[in-house]
């Protein structure tokens, strides 16, 4: 549902190349009746018409805006259709956070208990059993994968800082001055400082990993590039841990993960472009006793559409890697 | 052979995802002994070591620089191994043009007669039968696909102009001031005006399509983007032809082509990114009697690695589309 | 009038640093009442409030959209105030062209006869005497300066082709999908092919230089950069002219021009950034008998605000270079 | 001395437009004998030849690499010529830090005591009296201006974090893979994590402001833009301070500064482009008790050449703003 945004159309593209599913129906709010290639010329080779209502389906992805997504998905959930929600509407466990951060009263707070936060590296077993998946936000995906192993191992705690850098596609396809080429090109700026909606999501999941975390300061930045998120995270090391120890912790944590690589040099977002990979790197600043953890992803794939398909593969019992690139389009 | 450039590594990436072949061996001049992920971190998920010499193979791609490519390929050709040369060494039929434009005496002029210029849209049948394929240059691919149908139909003739715009990856991975970010970002310039090596290649192939062409003026430009070529071509309409006629000629010419689309709006290079597609568009300027033909490609795929694989598919009798994306990575 | 677009605010910035004038009043349609730094933070150091109506002034610049500009300027012209119109409303001599190309009936066709086309390199003497200056369009500035000397000298004629490349700022600050960062970044495309409004303007002025010109084919392209225009022009050499002859013609033509340099290497738009300079270069393609002339400008300065100030300097009898940078901000 | 890098040539450009000085002589290591426009076409309008040795001068700027800069400046200092060193060679007070961080033994450790760190906002009075100015590094300029007022006022302390983002021009004009357009475009990465040479410089100056600071974690990032640095800084608030208090502290601190603006929205580097301005912004994260301070500068101007001229103005008793733009080239 709703392929007319960047995450939605990327989902359509990846599903079109997925050998295990058939993309039977796409919807778009303002473009119903048009062929997909009229809205997105890069998809002209796909013979699909955008509809206003879904056909009968086995599984629904929603790339609708928050609030609207829950409203549209609830009937499907009640009919027993599996749903993967790319919006934020089922991510937070505490219904009150929707009032506080998103400004609406959640229409089905009881569903928040059963919905599973779709980060396979943390919740793979529950995802396999669930019918309602809350696909993680782009910034939380990078931040949680960067900090999770150190928190889990108990080597860091307290307040953590996430200084994140995102390409402009994260702000969507709708028109705003901050996405105008002439304003964002050759520029970098922070936004939504200490007030971004992904902050409670990052905190909820990291607090689920370890009770040692007490808070998250989250500062997103807009970078003059189209795709990619780099999350540079800072956490206080709470005892004498060596570089070798930390590296071992991360390699252990991600040993069997198909889409996370622990790398030995500071990662580049460009090396993830077009893939579902997350590249994770750690470094200790011995002078200040901080652990610096960095994660790089393609915000539209591991940060949205690709992770949704990874979740779908798990729900349907398909091999987890199916239809998901692991080699980047570079340069 | 030689994966250490941008075309070479793109070839390795596409071959790694190709279901009908096995990538058994890669070489690189200066990086022998390194794992492929050490030179190109975006390829770290591919477990291959770069060698100095090829193993025993059925088919060789060469992405070596010109002259060196011929020298290395000739022994393979003599042993009956099929070769696809991404360099320019087998593209020109007249050996004298190598002295004139490339500054070396061709080491095997007799092979130039049997080598096939690997543009499937013009030479599909010969490619299927050949053992030596000269993979077209990036600019010629776009220029010939833009102008070919009109010349073939006899509606244009005389001197043609190709004003082409290329992303910086066309200049390769080696270090030069003109590829320095700070010099090429926020800049556009022409280069090699009336003296670029792709001029004789474009002329040779278009003259093969129609004797009505008398010359090519070719002006390449460097654009601050990584991938993509747009060729804007101008040719004198030699009689009263309508927009409808021209459109019909192009649709007829490319009717069954899997990798050329005749589009109804001026094409964007970005809509070809990551694909083997060429988007072609035509428009008549009635005031001046010119036909304007525009083609957009991804210079590293349809303009290099993808077309090489398209040729390989034809040589090996595989379905032509195998392993070649048709939906772009966008945005 | 109307500083809320890119050309308007650049005019305000340059006037603020101009030693010979005082910027007394700025207007903006939707931002009246705001301080200039609220609309444009880069201008926060300038203490000016945007008004809805002009104060009493000696000279008015208008950066309003076409049609509206004429409507607003006519009263000032009637009161004898000098005006420099950055819009197109006084550029075309033939009133019928406004119906044909701009879709409105010109409100004061008699003024078109007395208004002077403000390209100092062609019309310096008239500009000095005039009260109504039509400031040239960005593409016409580059195109006319590139082709003018060769036409004047009679070495080229017939139909000419202008293949122009512009940064995104040329499309203005208003929001459109084609100016969205994610759509224009890493992309190049042609637009308004054989139908751009600058075509009749280029033709009018070049026809004024020489009756030998019979038509103009004009193809603008959008380039992923903020500022700059490169016009690559093609014209048939009508007799045996050498490279040396052409170079001499251009050097002669521009010998005393403070803002045109004839350069010996193909020019980069980046080398004009922030300046009022136009860099001009020529090259003969002997194979096809074409002259290739290239001009590079900063579209917002020599292509708009800077040229307007150059015209003002001439009208006010100030040294022509006053307040206009000649050294580029680079890189 | 040494105009062949980006900081050096920007210094030459600004000095050429400075009304109070005459640029008599420029040197460049590899380009001696060439006109300045041959090395930098954007400077072609300046009639200067690059020399191998300086003429007789009153004041020398050095934009040489570190170590070489000290070696070349020492003779001038000994002759009583005023010097402004854009390199790092006189910035650190402790000679041992040159061994540790720069890998060379300082040739004149006694001069480190008398050299003044040329950040006018901290050391204006000493700069006026000094003959040897160590012009601050680009990252330190932004970091110190962001954190200085809060430290001075005693509202923050402990370890601070500086997460900085720089355009590619900060890496210089020399050729490296990381400055290749195709590698840095559409990419963001961290580098020199916990090991960058600007770390001791930031710490030295901030420790001079307040003994409450115990350490600096400094993480620079490379951003796909040419100019600009954004420093996002995090410091623990050590008592109950309100947003209003902090804002007042910053406004007080910078009240009379011509080149620092305390802004009310998160600053954009683009709004400083071409100027000597530093834009500073603060925000409290009440959930975690952190102060977030952000500074934006043009790395080549306030971060290098412009600050050098600001220092020169102070040394020569000229008005401090002379020759230094305060309105940005935007967009």
UniProtKB/TrEMBL annotation, chains A, B, C, D:
It catalyses: N-acetyl-L-glutamate 5-semialdehyde + phosphate + NADP(+) = N-acetyl-L-glutamyl 5-phosphate + NADPH + H(+). One of its GO terms (biological process) is L-arginine biosynthetic process. Its main location: cytoplasm. The keyword Nucleotidyltransferase does not apply. GO terms for cellular component: cytoplasm. It is an enzyme of class 1 (oxidoreductase). NCBIfam families: argC (TIGR01850). HAMAP family: ArgC_type1. This is N-acetyl-gamma-glutamyl-phosphate reductase. The lineage of its organism: Bacteria, Bacillati, Chloroflexota, Dehalococcoidia, Dehalococcoidales.
């Amino acid at each position: 549902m709703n392929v007319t945004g960047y995450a939605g159309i990327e989902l359509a593209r990846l599903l079109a190349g997925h050998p295990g599913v058939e993309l039977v129906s796409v919807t778009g709010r303002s473009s119903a009746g048009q062929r997909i290639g009229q809205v997105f010329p890069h998809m002209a080779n796909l013979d699909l018409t955008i509809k206003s209502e879904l056909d009968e389906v086995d599984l629904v992805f929603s790339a609708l805006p928050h609030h609207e997504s829950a409203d549209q998905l609830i009937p499907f959930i009640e009919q027993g259709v599996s749903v993967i929600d790319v919006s934020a509407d089922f991510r937070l466990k505490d219904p009150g956070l929707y009032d506080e951060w998103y400004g609406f009263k959640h229409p089905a707070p009881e569903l928040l208990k059963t919905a599973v936060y779709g980060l396979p590296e943390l919740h793979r077993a529950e995802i396999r059993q669930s019918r309602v998946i809350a696909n993680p936000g782009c910034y939380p995906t990078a931040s949680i994968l960067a900090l999770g192993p150190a928190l889990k191992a108990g080597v860091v705690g307290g307040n953590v800082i996430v200084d994140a850098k995102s390409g402009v596609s994260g702000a969507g396809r709708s028109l705003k001055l901050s996405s105008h080429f002439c304003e964002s090109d050759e520029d970098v700026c922070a936004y939504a400082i200490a007030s971004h909606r992904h902050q409670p999501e990052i905190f909820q999941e990291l607090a689920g990993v370890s009770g040692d975390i007490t808070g998250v300061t989250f500062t997103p930045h807009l970078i003059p590039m189209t795709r990619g998120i780099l999350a540079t995270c800072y956490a206080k090391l709470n005892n004498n841990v060596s570089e070798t120890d930390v590296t071992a912790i991360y390699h252990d944590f991600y040993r069997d993960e198909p889409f996370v690589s622990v790398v030995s040099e500071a990662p580049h977002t460009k090396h993830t472009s077009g893939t579902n990979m997350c590249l994770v790197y750690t470094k200790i600043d011995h002078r200040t006793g901080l652990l610096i953890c960095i994660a790089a992803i393609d915000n539209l794939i591991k940060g949205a559409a690709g992770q949704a398909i990874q979740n779908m593969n798990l729900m349907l019992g398909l091999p987890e890697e199916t239809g998901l690139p692991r080699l980047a389009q570079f340069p």
